[in-house]
Amino acid sequence: MPHSKTWLALGSLAFLAMACAETPKHAEMVTSGATNVPTPPNVDRTKCDEKGKTVITADTNLDQKADVWKFYQSADVGGQKTEILTCKEVDLNHDGKIDLVYYYDDKGATLTLDEADTDFDGKFDMTRYYANGKVVREELDTNFDGKPDVWKYYEDEKLVRQERDTNGDGKVDEWEYFEGGKLDRIGYDTTGNGTVNKWDRAPENDDESAGGGSAAPAAPAPTAPTAPPPAATTPPAAKAAAAPATAPAPAPAKK
């Protein structure tokens, strides 16, 4: 896909170039048609379409190949033509494929969506939706089969519900609810009809209701896989072991 305008940044040097470049195709998160998963927030994915936009690229590892793409669209702001950032794509491991994508709001200041391919298999395995700059929903592909199997929901950036597809059929069959940051109850679908038909209380709640002993610690909620750093860094050399202290010389004998 040819870019209309490309700025190639090499370190601190930047220049404007009229050229044709190939934008790598980013990964895709595959979803199932028949599902009981709530519909995600609507995000304008055309913000990463280069049609009608200026694309600025950067070469962060100086290998003469672009690994960052920023998409800008002209907009009238207060009667003045302004370039608004709509999308940013990153090739983290420099293999020519997009591994991380950021979508921005109409002002180019706040995230509305980001997606990451954390294992570099060409498929997104983490997607996060934002509202007013705060994450409200997270989708994870924990078995890396190209389909989300964990959905997390947040209120004021606190996890309130986590849903799981434990058998890989594209439907939620386990629901975890959190109260005050702690797991409160778990619902199960044991019949395959897509709704809860069995409930369990969190272990600490059972102990508290029975009045016996101290509550068991809450099981930590699984955390989303995070994207690896853009490039590996060489670990610092191990420090040489400190030389043993020299024993003090014995005091001369008294005459």
Written account of the structure:
The chain is mainly beta. It has one domain (6-33, 49-210). The protein is 3% helix and 36% strand. It is built from 1 helix and 14 strands, in the order ββββββββββββββα. The chain has one helix at 203-210; strands spanning 6-10, 13-17, 54-59, 68-77, 80-90, 100-104, 111-116, 126-131, 134-140, 150-155, 158-164, 174-179, 182-188, 198-201. A 14-stranded mixed sheet has the order 2-1-3-4-5-6-7-8-9-10-11-12-13-14. β6 (100-104) and β7 (111-116) form a beta hairpin. The N and C termini lie far apart (96 Å). The model is unreliable at 1-24 and 211-255 (pLDDT under 50).
The stretches of 5 or more residues where confidence is low (pLDDT under 50) are 1-24, 211-255
Quickly give the structural class: mainly beta
How many beta-strand runs? Answer: 14
Mean pLDDT: 77
Compressed to H and E, one letter per element, the order equals EEEEEEEEEEEEEEH
Distance between the termini: 96 Å
Mind telling me the C-alpha Rg? 26 Å
Indicate the overall shape: elongated
Compute the number of helices.
1
| Sheet with most strands: strand arrangement | 2-1-3-4-5-6-7-8-9-10-11-12-13-14
Strand content: 35-45%
Summarize the structure.
By secondary structure, this protein is mostly beta strands. It has one helix at residues 203-210; strands at residues 6-10, 13-17, 54-59, 68-77, 80-90, 100-104, 111-116, 126-131, 134-140, 150-155, 158-164, 174-179, 182-188, 198-201. A 14-stranded mixed β-sheet has the order 2-1-3-4-5-6-7-8-9-10-11-12-13-14.
